[in-house]
Write a structure and sequence with these properties.
By secondary structure, this protein is an alpha+beta fold. The protein is built from 5 helices and 8 strands. It has 2 domains: 86 residues, Alpha-Beta Plaits, CATH 3.30.70.100; 104 residues, Alpha-Beta Plaits (2-Layer Sandwich), CATH 3.30.70.100. The chain is 31% helix and 33% strand.
C-alpha cells in the first residue's frame, strides 16, 4: 500500500461516544481494513490504507458521484461540530512484521516539521534510523507537505509509550549506532498518543 487517508472528526458536545460507536460500526460492516483512534483532544480519527494512486483516484471519483461512503460520512458529520477534515499521507517505511504489536491498544506519533531546505535530509535521517532500529517504527509523509514527516508505532499497553524523559537516551542510542541526529533538522515536533478503538490489518 502506498497511501493512508485519515478522516479527522471533531464531535459535537455530548456526541463523542455515539460518534465513536458509529465510526467503528461502519468500519466493521463496510470498510474492513484500517484503524479508528481517539485521544485526549476529543478527536476521532480513522485511517484507511490505499494500495496505490490508481485506487486513490477511483475512491475520489466514486465519492464525487455520491456513493455509500459519502452518505455514511454525511451522517457522521451531523454529530460533528465542524466539517470532517481529510489528510493524505504517503507511506515511506513500515514496521518489520516481526516487531508488530500483537494486540495494540495505543499508537504513538511524532510529527516533525523540517527546517527550511532540510526536508530531504530529515527524510534520509529518519530512514537511516529506521534501518538501524531494524524497522522498529513506521515513517510517513504528508502528501500535501512533504516537509512534515511522521514517525509512529502501535504498542500493546500504555506503559510502553515512550516518555518525554526518554527522548534524550533515545537520540543518544541512535547516535551511538551511527544514526542521524534529527534535532538539527527539525524546526518543530509534536507528539500524539491515541487509543485504538478498531484495527484490522487485513491480509
Amino acid at each position: 500500500m502506498d497511501y493512508i487517508i485519515s478522516a479527522v472528526r471533531t464531535p459535537a458536545p455530548g456526541k463523542t461516544q455515539m460518534l465513536l460507536k458509529t465510526v467503528v460500526s461502519d468500519f466493521e460492516k463496510n470498510v474492513g481494513r484500517g484503524m479508528v483512534t481517539f485521544g485526549n483532544t476529543g478527536l476521532i480519527i480513522s485511517h484507511n490504507p490505499i494500495e496505490n494512486a490508481d485506487v486513490l483516484e477511483q475512491i475520489q471519483d466514486s465519492f464525487l458521484e455520491g456513493n455509500s461512503v459519502s452518505e455514511s460520512l454525511a451522517k457522521q458529520e451531523a454529530d460533528c461540530s465542524e466539517p470532517i477534515r481529510f489528510l493524505l499521507r504517503e507511506i515511506i517505511a513500515t514496521i518489520d512484521p516481526s516487531k508488530r504489536s500483537s494486540n495494540p491498544k495505543y499508537i504513538q506519533r511524532f510529527m516533525m516539521r523540517a527546517k527550511p531546505g532540510k526536508a530531504v535530509d530529515l527524510l534520509e535521517g529518519l530512514l537511516k534510523n529506521h534501518e538501524i532500529s531494524n524497522g522498529n517504527f513506521n515513517v510517513s509523509a504528508m502528501a500535501e507537505n512533504p516537509g512534515t514527516l511522521i514517525m509512529s508505532k502501535p504498542v500493546d499497553h500504555f506503559n510502553e509509550i515512550r516518555k518525554i524523559s526518554d527522548l534524550k537516551s533515545f537520540r543518544d542510542n541512535f547516535r551511538n549506532k551511527g544514526g542521524a541526529d534529527l534535532s538539527e533538522l527539525v524546526a518543530s515536533m509534536e507528539g500524539r498518543i491515541m487509543r485504538i478503538a478498531y484495527m484490522n490489518r487485513g491480509t
